[in-house]
Amino acid sequence: MPSLTETPGVMSLLRHATESRRSKTGGGGVFKMFKLLPMLSSGCKMVALLGRPSKTMLADKAIAVTFFGYRRGRVSLAIQEDPRSPPFFLIELPMLTSSLHKEMASGLVKIALESETRTHKKKLVEEYVWAVYCNGRKSGYSIRRKQASDEERHVMQLLRGVSMGAGVLPCLYEKDAADGELTYMRARFERVVGSKDSESLYMINPDGSGGAELSIFLVRLK
């Protein structure tokens, strides 16, 4: 079975992201908000401050991508056409939320999801089993959610009016607080469809500066 570094489709996408979007990343991107997370105490307050929707921001065709999870638990990825629509792609990644925070704090992050299904009877985002890589390192396998859990719906509902931001959300169940705070990061992403077997998502910095700090690649093996 080919690894990420042996898969031409993934490597082509990674080279494209590196070459065509290479630039300084010291701008005022969404990643900077993660440095505030240890100081946040009110999820609702941070939603209001960092995520107040803007007609200008929501007027284009950019999609909404959200990473969320308890600090000591696994991180989930939700992709939506807009913040008020249900996710068309929802998956719990095989990595801890705290580990993703560290990757984001260190600079550029590239996440690749590779489907090994060879039937091609489904749309790419409808595939279920995915191998997950973060910055070239394999994290494990994940299965796309057919339906959102109560907690995932809780997060999506809280963030219905949020176009972009990062912060702490109130837990749905008090017992879940044992896993640490429920954190989230939402940003707008440019969606580039390469073919029926490949898609790329590039984070759009809110101030328009720098390149994509976070890129997501979905690839189906041929």
Automatic annotation (TrEMBL):
InterPro entries: MIZ1-like_pln. It comes from the Eukaryota. GO terms for biological process: hydrotropism. Pfam families: DUF617. NCBIfam families: A_thal_3588. This is Protein MIZU-KUSSEI 1. It comes from Musa troglodytarum (fe'i banana). The lineage of its organism: Eukaryota, Viridiplantae, Streptophyta, Embryophyta, Tracheophyta.
